[in-house]
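By convention, each integer encodes one residue's backbone shape. The lines below illustrate.
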Amino acid sequence: MKKLLFPLLLISLKLSAQNAQQIHQKAILIDTHNDVLSNQLITKVDLAKRQGEGNFDLVRAKEGGLDAQIFSIWCGEKYGKGTAFAMANTEIDSLYALIKRNPDKIALVRNSADLQKVVLQKKLAALIGVEGGHMIEDRMDYIDSLAKRGMCYLTLTWNNSTSWATSARDEETKKDSLPHLGLTDYGKQIVKHLNELGVMVDVSHVGERTFYDVLATTSKPVIASHSCVYNLNPFRRNLKDDQLKALAKNGGVVCVNFYSGFVDSTYTPKVTEFFHQHKAGIDSLIKIYNDKDLAFIHMASLYKAESDKLRPPLSMLIHHIDYIAKLIGVDHVGIGSDFDGSESFPLGMDSVADYPKITAELLKLNYTEKDIDKILGGNVMRVLKANTGK
């Protein structure tokens, strides 16, 4: 009898892996946040070809079963009036150029109906998310312009506050010196205008006061495009239980961020020491790239064996997904990797080719195929449709 157990176990594991792969391929997988465009402007790599660095290219996207990617349009707070909107459009231009060069592989979509059509054509559906309200430069007509170009969500703040909305970073570190907390009257007008245009309001990065002001103002479900659970890692960018419950009541969806610093509470002090030890190298890379974040990403890649020791296990990421599903329901959780926007992700999550591992882990936790379909993309499609009307 014992001689039979091992072969039977191997057969069972093989069938389980096959089942996970079938479920994964059948589902429509939507990742709501990837920062590759801002990096690509610096590195000039061809995203249609397999890359040795970074987390995204069209080849690995196909391998990972990625059906739709919301590309982040981002620039830091050094960009302001006269420069931020222009940078947003430059990044959108780069996405348009990628699509023009590869019409058989990728297409721009603006709603869930078009998304599903493109998926049936076996192309990657590309959507646009603008990360940071500073890129509209306090102008409502700039919102209109970005929406016409395909913006499907606006993240109201990045780490920096705007004149009309306060960020999570500033509400925590500058609370006593801020001219206001939350949304101003103009900020509420912006939320309402986004509702009218069918653009999703993204509450990742916003402060807690802004978060609740948004929910009191919006007439449509919102999205947290790349956030994790505060109760598992008490970092200001993560959402507290009451926020998660309020977002579920709104009908929205929280798309879980893969960044090690948001997943694992022990990661930040470890990586801070790592960067301190390699300060000279980072300073050199900053001069090359003129970009601090890209320097951090490249340094982690250069010292991969060392940086890998700092990464949390995949189980920690799955715990954030499972926590949200259990607290507020499986209808309100999605995937928002933040790939290409950070230097570290959980072990095993090296690129967009690795999404099937999430499906396999969820199956081990007894999530049904219907549940997994919702988590991988169904919930985001629901919120997208609720905002656009189609």
